[in-house]
Each structure stands twice: as structure tokens, then as C-alpha cells.
Write a structure and sequence with these properties.
- About 15% of the residues lie in helices and about 40% in strands.
- It is mostly beta strands.
- It has one domain (about 40-235).
- It has helices spanning about 5-20, 25-35, 155-165; strands at about 55-60, 65, 75-80, 85-90, 90-95, 105-110, 110-120, 125-130, 135-140, 145-150, 170-175, 175-185, 190-200, 205-210, 215-220, 230-235.
């Protein structure tokens, strides 16, 4: 016997509810957005990178060039289309054309300490200066400038480990790892140390792609197509 129209109407909401996808957890969101393909096994100590200028380097020929020259930039990441780089400068969010051009303000970013990645085309996941047990991660809407804290479980060891990793300078994109490493040079009177950006693909030896030569470089991020890395070069 076929169900009547009234029974079908009653069953529709139940069927729709059963087919709805499970809600994404904060851990899953971070793994998807932050340049991570697996949860890190160890916590990374938070870094305190020095602001500077945004640089970009081609991984094909290792040619690097500066995109800005007025300083004060931090935390660059590529837009989803790889045509722009978004970064923080003082209390503002800025957008910089990869092909060259002036950095354009995209509104204020008060309380934002780091850009994590894009969640779609119009929302940025960011790290804020909020203290536990409040959520240190938030979603920043590019169209409205609204900053909305993400759901957070301060008792979750996995969340804490991932957030600590996000604060650091290492990212894993499939089989490619982008990170910073301390380099040194011994002089007549003292040894000079600085941070350089390295890229390691699979089992191949890591390659120094920034070659900053005595100046700290930090906050590396890789383009979506895997061809470029952007980073901050200190003054």
C-alpha cells in the first residue's frame, strides 16, 4: 500500500535530516584550511615574527622579488585564486597584487594576530589575541568586516595541539613541507643567526628558497597551485 500525501509530508523532514552532512569540527576545519594534511604529533612553540616586507619566490627557478617596500607587514597568505596576497599591516587587513601594485586596505583587523587561511572566497579564518577559555580562532567576513569567534573546546588536547601548530611557521601541503629554520654565519667577532624559509618535497633534501643572508624571514605560505611561496622579510 502506497503512503498517503500526509504521511509523505511527515516523512520529508526526517529524510532531509538524515541526508544532511555532519557538522565540521574545529579540528577538521583547521586541517582543511591551515595548510595541514594531518594533525601534528608535537606542539609548536608560538613564534613572534618581526614585521617587514612581503616577498614572493618561484619554486621553479627560485627567483625572489619584493611585493612591498614600505614595511610593517606580517602574516601573508594567498587568496584562493593566487592572484592576490592578503596580509596584516598594523591594525588593517591589506590585499597585494601578486603581479605587482599597491597594497589596498580591506578594512580594520583589530585583535587579529595572524591569518590562517580562506574558508571559501569571502571568509578568512584568523588567529586573534583572545585568551582561553575564549576561542582564539575566528572567521573574518571580507564583505562586512564582521569577526565571529569559532566554536572551541578548551578541554580538547587535539584542538590545543593544532592551535599551537597554527601559531608556528610550519605548514604541510600534501607531500610538501614549508617551514623556517635558523641559519648562522661565523664572523671575526661573533656568530650571526637569522631565519630562512625552507621547502622540502617528499624525501628530497630541503631547499632554502629565501636566502635572506643575515636578515630574518618568517611566516611562509604556499600558493594553491604549489608554484610560489610568500613570506615576510624583516628590515
Amino acid at each position: 500500500m502506497k503512503p498517503g500525501p500526509l504521511l509523505l509530508l511527515l516523512l520529508l523532514p526526517v529524510a532531509g535530516l538524515a541526508q544532511s552532512p555532519p557538522k565540521e569540527t574545529l579540528v577538521q576545519k583547521l586541517l582543511r584550511i591551515a595548510g595541514l594534511t594531518a594533525a601534528p604529533s608535537q606542539m609548536r612553540a608560538p613564534g613572534d615574527p618581526q614585521p617587514g616586507d612581503i616577498w614572493i619566490v618561484s619554486l621553479q627557478d627560485r627567483q625572489a622579488r619584493a611585493l612591498t617596500q614600505d614595511g610593517g607587514y606580517r602574516s601573508p597568505i594567498f587568496a584562493p585564486n593566487d592572484a592576490f596576497i592578503y596580509a596584516l599591516r598594523h591594525e588593517a587587513l591589506v590585499r597585494i597584487p601578486v603581479g605587482g601594485g599597491t597594497a589596498a586596505s580591506q578594512g580594520t583587523a583589530t585583535g587579529v594576530v595572524k591569518l590562517v587561511g580562506f574558508d571559501g572566497a569571502d571568509d578568512l579564518i584568523v588567529l586573534t589575541d583572545a585568551w582561553e577559555p575564549a576561542s582564539p580562532l575566528a572567521s573574518l567576513a571580507l564583505k562586512t568586516g564582521r569577526l565571529a569567534p569559532l566554536p572551541h573546546d578548551p578541554t580538547s588536547a587535539e584542538e590545543q595541539r593544532l592551535i599551537a601548530f597554527v601559531r608556528g611557521d610550519e605548514r604541510v601541503y600534501g607531500g610538501t613541507r614549508v617551514y623556517t629554520r635558523t641559519e648562522s654565519r661565523r664572523g671575526a667577532l661573533r656568530t650571526t643567526e637569522w631565519m630562512d624559509v625552507f621547502v622540502a618535497r617528499g624525501d628530497a633534501a630541503p631547499v632554502n628558497v629565501s636566502a635572506c643572508g643575515g636578515v630574518d624571514c618568517s611566516a611562509p605560505s604556499m600558493s594553491g597551485d604549489g608554484r610560489f611561496v610568500t613570506y615576510v622579510k624583516a628590515p
